[in-house]
Design goal:
mainly alpha
Amino acid sequence: MQDSTIHLERTPKTTPGPIPRLAGGLRTKRADHVVHGAKTFIAALLTWVIVAPWSTAGRPYMAVATALLMVNASTVYQSVTKAAQNVVARVAGLVLALAAAQLLGPTAGAVAVIAIIAVLAGPRRTAEDRLQIASTAVIALAATTADPMGSLVSPALQTLTGAAVGIAVNALVLPPLYLSESDSAVRDLARSMGTLLHDMGTGLSRRQLTSKAHTWLHQARSLDERLTRAEEQVRQANESLRWNTRCVARTRRRETAFNDDDTFRALRGVSLQVRGIARTLADNAHDNHADHHLGHQFLDQYAETLQLAGAAVRTFAEPTPATNSPDTSPRERLRGAIDGTLAWHDTMTGMITRGTLTKPGAWHVYGSLMTDAERLLADLDRTDTH
């Protein structure tokens, strides 16, 4: 047991420090800006070349605007869905402008009718869709009086062409992937959670329950922000894989994203138990009933449990080693940490069953802490088995 613990304590040294991670993040963001700029320029130029020869007065502004919107969508899947919404909204606005011009002409009354109809377009349409319909209709209102059909067909074709070019450029020229952001967010969550578990274990072993309990509770509650960020990053990474041409030749990227998804689900379950443990310790630290205070014998062994659990959670924050040696495998270290924690768990359960623990009035506190630890280990164990 001692050898496993020593080995686990060395693992955080293999994790990159904050400065290298920050430098790597800045380099990635700079490269992303360059790619976005190049794709935007290509989409705008290509759209202008295609649409200018047949657009009205050689001004394909609507096509270029649509292409820029599509090429800058965060994912290929989102560019397609946005294109469909954009085309439908603009065509609806053009039809509305044509109908208003035929009935009322380019007057203030036509503008008022357009605004009312756009507002009452239906509860299923978002405010952005309604605004786009209304703005397109108002802009096209004047043009419909001179050439009704031309003012309807030309903008519709420009919108379709711009959307097609924007989607094509976004899908074929380095389509965006967010696997590194997802991986970083999940590792950051695991690192923070593992560190908190280890700190709670260390604090209990040093008899710092009263002085640090509320600090642990605050840190446990602050994990919600990291959890939300990780959830959003994992969702975006999975979405970026849909219809992405870069995933055809690199199936490993899809496997990496699915691993992040599995790890996040495990960490989300663990976070509930970490918060429960921190809350129980904080409540017990300031319980006025003396017989409800946790005994030193329990605190010493529970501290070891939390330290081992923290080491197990931190394995999720470690990069995968280049070698396949079992001695350096994160899975082996996780398995060893879980086995060690389960051994302590069995010891504590046996002591509670036999009634050998002191402070019998605190049994309900023992039960709460042991239940949270058992559920935490169950989440880790399922992930390790998977």
